[in-house]
Amino acid sequence: MFNIFKKNNKKDSRSLLKTRNNELIVKHNPKSPASEAYRSIRTNISFLSPDNPLTKIAVTSSGPSEGKSLTIANLAVSMAQNGKKVVIIDADMRKPMQHKFYDLPNFEGLSNILTSEIEFEDGLRETGIDGLKVVTTGTVPPNPAELLNSKRMEEVIKKAEKEADMVFIDTPPVIAVTDAAVLSNKVDGIILIVASHQTEEQMMVRAKENLDKANANIIGTIITKYPVSTKGGYYNYYYYYGNSFKG
Amino acid sequence: MEQFEQDMIEIDLREYFSIIWHRKWFVIGAMVIALLASYFISINITKIYQSSTLVMVKEDNGMENLFSEQLSFGMGKNDKVGTYTEILQSRRILTKVIEKLDLRDLETGELISIKELREMISISGGENNLITITVNYSDAEMARNIANTIVEEFMEENREMNSVELKGADKFITEQLAKTESKLIELEDRLLNYKEEHGVILPSEQGKVTLEKLTEVETAKAKAEVELKQSEVSLAEVSKKLAEEDKEITSTKVITDNPIVKNHQQQLANLEVELAGLKESYTDKHPKILELEKKREEIKNRLEEAVTEIVSSKTKTINPLYSSLKSNVISLQTNIIATASQLKTYQAQINQIKEELSALPEKELALARLQRESKVTESIYTMLRQKKEETQIQEAMKTSDIIVVDPAIASELPIKPNVKLNMVVAMMLAIFVAVGVIFLIEYLDTTIKDESDVERLTGLPVLGMTPHLDMIDHSQGYGRGE
């Protein structure tokens, strides 16, 4: 709230844009230090439990606009590039986002599958990236939490699991609505996104409490929006290589 | 363990630096604003000019000074500079300065108060008998004038105080001179008339001698009387001046009643008688007379010492400003006592001679009396003329005992405001405040910064950190990837 010199409003104006394809850093700038950061996270996730690999991962955050969707998209691209088959399910029916990364329409999607309007296979779309498919939110329903808590949702996740080596589920913020908590029981683990210099300490603590109450398996956190010098060089690497996984 | 702590400190310092570095524009902005603000404020506020003058206090080396130094254990000199320093900023002097220079408040147009003037000046007297008078004023010329006028007024005051006894004497002599002159004219007329009326009468040889002697003694007496009177008038004037300054002085009666003084006085009277007796038989250059005169001087000196002691012990404070007045008191008192004893002797002699004269014939006696009186008056007149001349010379010689070493000059550059200094101070202040504000913001900012915050608050592992995409140059690569 005291970030005097940061252009916060830039973020909001960008979210109004139809396409956010250019934000898939891993696809467009594979050599960028940022891409390297996503690859590092990919490696850390795969090392979490080598014997019993995590295949269904939900991603949430304490508040809005902390970078959930972007992180999922880039992580997914990174894994797809590594030869894995990945499916992203956009379960954030409050603020649908994933379709924007791949320039996809959002007329039909998860909500339509859950209400049996269409089949799962019809909702699963190609993204133009080998090995990466996505289920967009579809028509925004009035009761997302109930839809997500349904048996149909479990079936959708199972079907997605069959299609891919890794399933990512994008969810709304955990403090605002119960959607994420509801979904956390249907996946192997949940990742909490924390935006550096944005997430309040107390919000993060409450987010963790909410997830703990739902008996969620929090596998870890990812810190986004970490400020770095634009000049690059040593200082950059110091931060997001030197501090890689410590779990 | 030590190595670990050192790492921690290093990281801490780096963090502090990066915190400030991230907000460097805030610091620079604050500096620029402070510089501009201090510059414009500095050039717009009233300029103050400074002028200073240096004066030296003369040391007086009279007998009085010896005594005061003895009594105050050598602190007399500094005391004098200290007192002058105080007097320089006294109401007495400053009121005159304000009136003379017509110092007015720029807003109200009224004469400024003494307090205001006193705030503008600073007077410091150090060792070496030097006093510096420094004036800060919004006008360079006026600052110079104030400094110089303070010194002038003080010198005036000082001079007046030093020559106060001459003033009284001068007045007295002028009066006496006029009186004596008319008396002389009258006597000469009468003598002429008498001679016309009674024809020329030649006094006898014996009468002539007696008459001459009488004339001589009466002249001496008259001179002594004038001396006494002059001393008394001067003493009165000095006493008045001292009383003005609330200083008590010892009265003549106390001094005359002192046994030592009485003794000296008696001796002096005896000597005078003896001297008068001898003078009848010998000339003025006779060794015996010279010896007696020497003795008389000696007794006079001793008398003066005695008086000094009394005056010094009775006068309450040893204020250097009044030291000259005090030395005047001493010499005047001594003079009065000595002359009084002289007078007594002369009176006795006169009575004796008059008896001798009464044996002379009537007409001769009357003529002799007239001649005598006319002669006496003439010599008194001559003496008074001489005295007047002397007093005038003395008065002209009396000066203030301070000398202006460096008169004040008008300075071209104001001493206040010091634009450069103000700007430097403002800049430093801005940097301090800006850094303070940055750290305050950082302290109040309760958002999560990095993994240490996450681990501290939740204990959850951090899988990784992604950079703020707006802040990264994606073209810079590590050389990996596809």
From TrEMBL, chain B:
Q: Kindly state one GO CC term assigned in the UniProt record.
A: plasma membrane
Which regions form coiled coils? 177-373
InterPro entries registered for this protein in UniProt: Bact_polysacc_biosynth/exp (IPR050445), GNVR (IPR032807), LPS_length_determ_N (IPR003856)
Q: Which domain of life is it from?
A: Bacteria
Q: Where is the Tyrosine-protein kinase G-rich domain?
A: 367-440
Report if keyword Membrane is assigned: yes
> Which keywords, in A-to-Z order, does the entry hold?
Cell membrane, Coiled coil, Membrane, Transmembrane, Transmembrane helix
- A GO MF label: protein tyrosine kinase activity
Where does the chain cross the membrane?
25-46, 421-441
The way it spans or sits in the membrane comes to:
Multi-pass membrane protein
Q: Subcellular location, in the record's words?
A: Cell membrane
Specify the Polysaccharide chain length determinant N-terminal domain's residue ranges: 10-101
Q: Does the keyword Transmembrane helix apply?
A: yes
Query: Which family would the database say this protein is a member of?
Result: Belongs to the CpsC/CapA family.
Q: What name appears for this protein in its UniProt entry?
A: Lipopolysaccharide biosynthesis protein
